[in-house]
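Problem 12. The chain below contains 134 residues. Write out its predicted structure in token notation.
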Amino acid sequence: MSAHHEALIQAMVLISASDGSMEDSEIASIGRIIRDAPVFSGFDMNQLRPITEACAAALSQEDGLDLIVASIVDKLDTQLAETAYAFALDIAASDGKVAPEEMSILEMLRHSLNIDRLIAAGIERGTRARFYQS
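Solution.
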């Protein structure tokens, strides 16, 4: 397992769990991203459950949010920071609504990953376009 794979999955699980539950649509979106995104080429799907369980266990700790965000930042190089943010946005949008808790975590993640506000706005606009529901 690659550290960047773990960090990208942690970012998605973090957003999914931020509103207190992981919706089926969010879980399905995580699986779809892992299966389809070129960055996950070679990822062993058998590692998904241990990564998500470890992330959920860490989040249940008192300082779990800080631990997971620090882990994500530590394991990603700057080129994948925007990818992690984009994947997190996709998970937040996958159930058709972005909860206030998700917005707060997304902002924290953006700042922690040092993603420029203008770059983030472009990523966010792309997510809105992909997940628009008429």
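Discussion. The chain has a mean pLDDT of 91. Students who got a different answer should revisit the alignment rule from Section 12.3.
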